[in-house]
# Entry
Amino acid sequence: MTMRIDVLTLFPAMFQGPMTESMLWKARDRQLLDLRLHDIRDFTTDKHRTADDIPYGGGGGMIMKPEPVVAAIEYALQDAPPRTPVILMTPQGRVFSHAIAKELAEQPHLILLCGRYEGIDDRVRQLLVTDEISIGDYVLTGGELPAMVIIDALVRHIPGVLGAEGAADRDSHADGILEAPHYTRPPEFRGLSVPAVLTEGHGAKLAQWRREQGLRRTWERRPDLLLKADLTEDERYLLGRFADEDARRLSSAK
Ligand code: ADE
# Structure
């Protein structure tokens, strides 16, 4: 299945590079991703190709005019299946995550709308936007980088893009737990050796070690994730052990 993504932006050149290298290029080359960039300025109708204007009520900054943006969205929607998501990149949207990447990867067609300046006339949102996504609680100068982040994260979920089928399901965050550390050759580097369990070839022991390492990292770095993770009884027991270790360390440090 080819996934089609139409990106509407005032700065299509920003996508050169990130969208033409590595995995993204492979996905496009194999026709798994049909990425189409549209310059919103091409949908203006005046001779100066005006895409922005001053805000009603003052306040400074420039606002993207509704007419060219709506024309660009309607153009992209022309041959789109019904209920194709029209997603506005905005710091006011729902915060992007592994789960949202997976959800979006199931769509055959997406339209990503990148705002610039202070924002887009709100009537565009009211008329045509079906979803709003933020990539984090900080403000960027535009929606182009967020759109690229989203494309990169969801293309990894399209079957056939990653080497080993389903590898995206083993990533950090896939099941609410961070990944175990990775090693490659040489077996010893600057006095640090590779954990023996990785070279012993004992499958069950290795799986157990990875799960424990991932769980330990999550406990130490992102305990907030554990509240939502789907944990087995063994994993709950391990968490109890980590907590005991921490408590012992704290009391011996007194
Ligand atoms: N536009 C500006 N900042 C943004 C953010 N954090 N996420 C998505 N779009 C944005």
